[in-house]
Design a protein that fits this description.
This protein is an all-alpha fold. It has one domain. Helix content is 91%, strand content 0%.
């Protein structure tokens, strides 16, 4: 194989690995944010059950700031379960 083709293949391989790494990183951040928002939402629900309304509001606010969509999905799911 000529040296020119080896260099071209190496560049393509590095770019592909870089792109895969970037995609993996973005997916990881998204999953982490989703789980983190769910944690605060669920903790807020528990605080309501304990009549800790101020603490519940703080946790719901954190969940909304992390991932607003996750909180609305949790509200829909919890409403359907009742």
């Amino acid at each position: 194989m000529p040296k020119k083709n080896k260099n071209k293949n190496g560049i393509i391989m590095r770019r592909t690995l870089r792109n895969i790494s970037i995609i993996f990183f973005i997916i990881s951040i998204t999953v982490f944010a989703q789980n983190n928002a769910d944690f605060f939402f669920e903790r807020g629900v528990e605080k309501i059950k304990e009549s800790d309304y101020k603490g519940a509001i703080q946790d719901f606010t954190k969940a909304i700031n992390i991932n607003p969509r996750s909180v609305s999905e949790n509200r829909i799911e919890n409403g359907e379960k009742k």
